[in-house]
Amino acid sequence: MGETVNKKVIWTVRDVLKWTSEYLRTKGCDSPRLDSELLLTHALGVNRLRLFLDYDRPLSDKERKKYRELVRRRASREPVALITGKKEFWSLEITVNPGVLIPRPETEILVEVVLDQCKTLTGCSVLEIGCGSGAVFCAISSERHDIELYACDISLCALSCASINASVSSSVNRVYIFASDLLESVRSGPVFDIIFSNPPYIPSSLIDNLEPEIREFEPYCALDGGVDGLATIRRLISASRNCLKPKGNLILEIGDQQSEEVERLLKLNDFSEIRTYTDLSGKIRVLKAVL
Q: What radius of gyration do the chain's Cα atoms show?
């Protein structure tokens, strides 16, 4: 593969992308072509447009060596986002590390619902519980510059990552990040107009069945929702009652087939006006309730 000049094989951008795509496909990667392109842009320090414009550019031995190491890591099913240290979310480039969940497209629904609830509020106070990388609050703050945003996480590694992402956004002075196990570090009282979260919601027994990209490389504590997946959600619903203003909103991302039980828990804790939001596959992904 590749053009031969004086018995030396010349590998072009086109050649390595074709070979890598086929190789990653044999390793079970879901999007081998996209993965190949993202890894090569990272290795070369260029964007994807530049990559396409330079399809016939030969790669140096040094460039090939660097790319080969990235491909080796992806072939072991390490997520591309952890290899490159970044992930696009809401058209933002989010820094990620092994201590946070990699932002997923379906979580953009959570952003949409929070923003929709903020439409009628001026200068509202919003708290994200379990902020992880900070992708969600960064997306929200990029759209609304009048929101007073607070974000917490129990993981110091996650808080460090969230702080990095906040520091590169224009909203750094409007996001207050702190350590807390759910709402334990928040004073009781009607403080927030909106509390939202993408909490751990995967039943413990199902984690070993997840794709290796998730079960082997993402933080277990951010995945494990206990026996039925709702251990953290139960605590969160109960605790949020003490911190929401009257008519305040609790907005939660949930797992597949959990909506009925979460609705029951919300009603038991005096929440009403419960509304569900589906993802592109038609599964209920987010619930909103009013206290």
A: 22
Are 95 and 85 within 8 A, CB to CB? yes
Q: Is the pTM of this model over 0.85?
A: yes
Residues 247 and 121 in one domain: yes
pLDDT digits (tens, 9 = 90+) for 190-215: 889 999 999 999 999 999 999 999 99
For the chain, how many structural domains are there in total?
A: 2
Domain boundary among 26, 44, 76: 76
Same domain, 96 and 67: no
